């Protein structure tokens, strides 16, 4: 049963038939792991805390820099120099003091990541590098944990949801089927290229929407195993189906280099 205080706070989403009081209680009991708290994690974590997600685990080993503030909207000028995890936690608690937040200000090795994924209901990949993305995908797949991934560069964004849970909804493709490599070309790295703040924010918001769908209703309503591509110039979306690669080292039947990712920390 929701408290009167909670009912007032969340009434505008409780009024949505897909959520209701039951969905709100599920959100209040949910545990979300957010890998990376840059532009994507900023937007996603703010909306998830606002929506009443009970527990957020935020992972990032960077400090807030002036050049982050153009797009990483969770941070404030007076937080420059602070650990991102500390600064983000302060802002999230300022929005919703009922959210329980745990922070990890380091890069996790695979065993640590496995433990964190085991505890989570859903994982948001908000990281900015391919080795991390591939390891997060591998661990989510192995543990049958849903994964919501996004990326943005320039005016472009991409977003995908993989439902790795057992049963009929088990994914037929994984992130690695889509991107079967460990490094992006130098020009595609966020730290080296331009990127528009609201484009990153749009993709982070999509991640929050997908997470709320899953946590409040028990399933994704958005189509899973699809590549949703956003063009920030035309403001148009395109959606492409992701095919399973039978030789994929994570979800395919081939045994080739299946565990090569284990050696590198995030
Ligand atoms: Zn795969």
Helix and strand arrangement:
Layout: H1 4-9, H2 11-14, H3 20-28, E1 31-35, H4 39-50, E2 55-59, H5 84-95, E3 100-104, H6 110-119, E4 122-125, H7 130-142, E5 147-153, E6 156-162, H8 175-178, H9 197-217, E7 226-231, E8 236-241
Parallel strand pairs: 1-2, 1-4, 2-3, 4-5
Antiparallel strand pairs: 5-6, 6-7, 7-8
Helix pairs in contact: 3-9, 4-5, 4-9, 6-7
Walkthrough of the structure:
Residues 10-249 form the THIF-type NAD/FAD binding fold domain. Pfam families: ThiF (PF00899). Helix content is 34%, strand content 17%. By secondary structure, it is of the alpha/beta class. The protein has a single domain, classed as NAD(P)-binding Rossmann-like Domain (Rossmann fold, 3-Layer(aba) Sandwich). Strands 3-2-1-4-5-6-7-8 form an 8-stranded mixed β-sheet, sandwiched between helices. It is globular, with a radius of gyration of 18 Å. The protein starts with a helix and ends in a 25-residue tail after the last strand. Bound molecules: zinc ion.
